[in-house]
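Task 17 of the worksheet. Students: predict the tertiary structure of the chain below and write it out as structure tokens. Keep your answer in the requested format; marks are given for formatting as well as content.
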Amino acid sequence: MSTVEEDGYSSRCDLCDTEVIHSMTELLLQGLATASVDSTTGDIFKSASSVAVAVKAELENYMLVRTEALVRESVVGDEDHSEQLMKASTRPTEFLSDLIDDFVALKKNVLSHVSGFLSSESRLNKIKDFMQKMETENVWALDARKATAETILVSIDMKCIFHCPERFVEQDKLADHRSQCKFRVVDCKNDGCSASFSAIHIEDHDSICPFKALPCDQLCEQHVMRCEMDRHCATVCPMKLINCPFYHVGCETAFPQGNLDNHCSKLLQTHMLYVLQATTRQNATVNDMNQRLQLLEKAQSLNEMSGALDVRSLTLIIKEQEAKIKKLEHDIKTQEAKMKKLENEFRSRNA
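Model answer:
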């Protein structure tokens, strides 16, 4: 961008924060999709695709006019507009989002208000699908959106937080400056990372880059990528603490796994003693188990004998009870016979 000054032509650097510009370009595409969908909802004669180009032109003009008006009013001393511009200068994406919301509200028809109230999820899905369609069909090219975003950002960034305001009369000096400007685009230097960003964010990116090689958290001599650190520390790191292989026989020492060979060679005799003691305990346990097994076998035999005796006793008791029952039945029959005889004698006398 060039501007005319008293001593001739001068050029501004105007490099911008790429992260902010990226966010603004996404907002622009979303705003166009939303306005196109909301302005044609329920209209059988129009579709979002049929109005997108016209709506894009309206949206660009609306944002530029609103931005210029805000800057102009703040310059002439309007306190409210000056305060708004200062807020916009520190939160440009929020400012742009508000502008787009205002434009979308103007484009909504009656049916879109109702349908948006009744089915917000359906509306959002339509907007998302139309955004993807516009990207595929290049309805609003990325470079064009970047140019619009940069124009708005440079206009409102009064504190020069997100763009470079430096001016140069000579083009070679401008070129030299841009090669060193804090807003120049740089690539991450960490092997495997493909991220690009403004130089002002080098430290921020470096602090979170998953491909950054860092000293091992467990202080081994290796440098490990941030994204591999957890796996390294939990598996192959020589400083990972492990238990002695002879832990189960008595050696409860824990040490870095890189010291395994040294530990085993130094404590060879101790480990052999642990093994011998464990073997002795195991033999004693085996003998004890054998003795217990023999006792269980004897107990089982006694239980079987006892069970046999119990069966015999129960059989005798049952036979005795059966005999008593038979005798009782015989006595009852005898008594019944006597009763019948007495009844017959009584009847014959009365007859």
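Marker's comment: Residues 1-8 have pLDDT under 50 and may be disordered. Residues 17-163 form one domain.
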